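Moderator note: this is an archived Q&A kept for reference. The question asked for a predicted structure of one protein chain; the sequence and the answer are reproduced below.
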Amino acid sequence: MSRIAATLSTLKAQGRKALIPYVTAGFPYADITPELMHGMVAAGADVIELGVPFSDPSADGPVIQKAGDKALAFGIGLANVLAMVREFRQKDAKTPVVLMGYANPIERYNQKHAASNATQSAFVRDAAAAGVDGVLVVDYPPEECEAFAAELKAAQLDLIFLLAPTSTDERMAQIARIATGYVYYVSLKGVTGAGTLDTGAVEAMLPRIRSFVNVPVGVGFGIRDAATAKAIGKVADAVVIGSKIIQLIDDQPRDKVVPVAGECRRGIRAALDS
């Protein structure tokens, strides 16, 4: 059982919902991410989603795009992100870490770091060695990445997919065949940080998703405060929050970043547990 599956199974047995905060690696300061990750755990995070900066993030709204641009300006790339996870693992061997990003950085990494006669891709090899637990690649459709999914699974890594309000039954069935860890339901049409969350629509959609997938369902996009998190937590297995955290820590002095982010997460954790 993967670290993600074990964590979510334990929470389910306790009658609790997972809190999954998202932050962009290398934001708002190039060297703050491991410290921020530890702060997330102390404030109640169960799984951490770590965004890999990319120059053309098609699913991200302006808040996360800006964060990614700032991290890229610091020179943060996939190799740096893996180093951040390795540093985090020196003190935390328990909390699952999911890398969220796009295909291009992974493919470039494989080209640059491939070993001769290797049977495993450089990214999977190095992500597993660093202590990564799962990967969410926004622009890898399920029909094109079954081999990638199998390679990840062999390395004890989960491949996590997005589902949306527009997902067809056929797409859900495709994803159900290869998804592990959890699936991430994008509760709004559009990009991260957009729109107003319709909790009733989410509640209506989840039974349909669960009729296809047998892994936990996390919900994100549009969750901005304790009230929306609590409403979603009543029907979902996990709540993902990202844009709000990025907004709160943007332009903060370095010594305020971890406390400000922690205060936000503690409020959401309390709401989920109430």
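Archived answer notes: The CA atoms of residues 44 and 229 lie 14 Å apart.
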